[in-house]
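Feature request, filed as a ticket because there's no other form

It would be nice if the structure record came with a short human-readable summary line next to the tokens. Right now we just get the raw output. Example of a typical job, pasted below so the devs can see what we mean:
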Amino acid sequence: MTNELVYEGKAKRLFKTEENGVLRVAYKDDATALNGVRKESFAGKGELNNQITSLIFSRLAEEGIRSHFIRAISETEQLVKEVSIIPLEVVVRNVMAGSLAKRLGKEEGEVIPRAIVEFYYKDDALDDPFINDDHVLYLDIATTSEMEKIRDAARSINEVLKKLFNQMNITLIDFKLEFGRDAAGSILLADEISPDTCRLWDKETNQKLDKDVFRRNIGNLTDVYTEVLNRLKQVQN
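Raw output as currently delivered:
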């Protein structure tokens, strides 16, 4: 096993492996907010997100959604196909919350009749600004055809995830996706899907089961992530 670091982000490290085109992802215990301005470490967080992401990506594969995920190899690590990340954060919104509610002057919790798909330019120095299709083309991030593929994939993923979280008695409020191009130029789902990247509310109590408990200082992060994992394991069995 090689320890040559390829990339380190806020929540994960990527290492080369002895197999060409395959990387090892090691999940960190760090939690960040405000694009890294606030940062803390929570023992066990990396293990929780690795397990949650592995289970969710496996479910997506069963539903025909292609991703970079290969398999989990330890409590905190997984193998993934090497991709070139497209610098877009793709946000899918089912319920008004967070920045969208503020931007449009709406109350949090209002159901959106048709899911909204948004693009944000993935650049921490610019605070990941909201951009439209013309910006994407100007920045040479993706072609019109690729944007269509990404939007279609995001909506398909949303349908699978809504059904899955509904079985867990959780409302999928919104979530962030990232995509990458493999060696052949095909677009694959990448990164992770976890309470770090989703807003999740308990259907009965509206308790927040995601990173908002850290952002807003309203709960224990590892407690709610553990709750999500436990519910996910129950519906997977």
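Something like this underneath would help us a lot:
The first strand starts at residue 5 and ends at 8.
The radius of gyration is 17 Å.
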